[in-house]
Amino acid sequence: MLTPLVQESTPAIIARKLHNAIANGDFPPGSQLTESGLAADLGVSRGPLREAMQRLTAEGLLVSHRNRGLFVVSMERDDIRDMYVARTAVERAAVQQVIAHSESEAVAALDEAVEAMRVFGDEPNGAGMAEADMGFHQTLVELAESRRLSRLHETILVETRMCLRAMRGTYSSGKERIDEHQALVDAIAAGDSAKADALMIEHMADGLRRLIGDGDDAGDVPGSGS
């Protein structure tokens, strides 16, 4: 049976384009977005553009400074830690949902996501590896089959991509990066909830440490024991 086509509204299309532009670094953290400039670039009127920008403001990707305008959120130390708090919660929940569903197709999809990372094993800090890494986590959350988790993760995803660009240069081994993800898949395949949860917590803590350093609060994410 064919399913009905879902037609996006103009504000939704604009919001998605802005999402992608921010995620790709076209609008760096802290940069100002002006209605006049964006309307001209996108070839749209200010009404739907304003609605799209309001959506991104509600999601926390844009911030409004009084008498100054709208700016892309700045990924300062506290912002990064807060983003990892949210990301850890969402992905831990996703892991448990995938294990609960106990579907071989999910494990196969995660294995494929790891294989996509192996392609870039010789370039652990390259753009390809970063994108494949992000693809793994996106696949994981989608496999949880939870609309709400996916919705939350979609917002976090843009900030995560911004952070992954900053993380480049911190990995000395592609194998190490890949093995972390494979170990998580193996725990999920074995149905070992406790091990998978522990691996996810440590994986997130490691990512946070790579971004903000090795201070006392580095890696302090929910369930990390810090």
From TrEMBL:
Residues 8-75 form the HTH gntR-type domain. Keywords: DNA-binding, Transcription, Transcription regulation. GO terms for molecular function: DNA binding; DNA-binding transcription factor activity. SUPFAM superfamilies: GntR ligand-binding domain-like, Winged helix' DNA-binding domain. CDD domains: WHTH_GntR. InterPro entries: GntR_C (IPR011711), TF_FadR/GntR_C (IPR008920), Tscrpt_reg_HTH_GntR (IPR000524), WH-like_DNA-bd_sf (IPR036388), WH_DNA-bd_sf (IPR036390). This is GntR family transcriptional regulator. The lineage of its organism: Bacteria, Bacillati, Actinomycetota, Actinomycetes, Mycobacteriales.
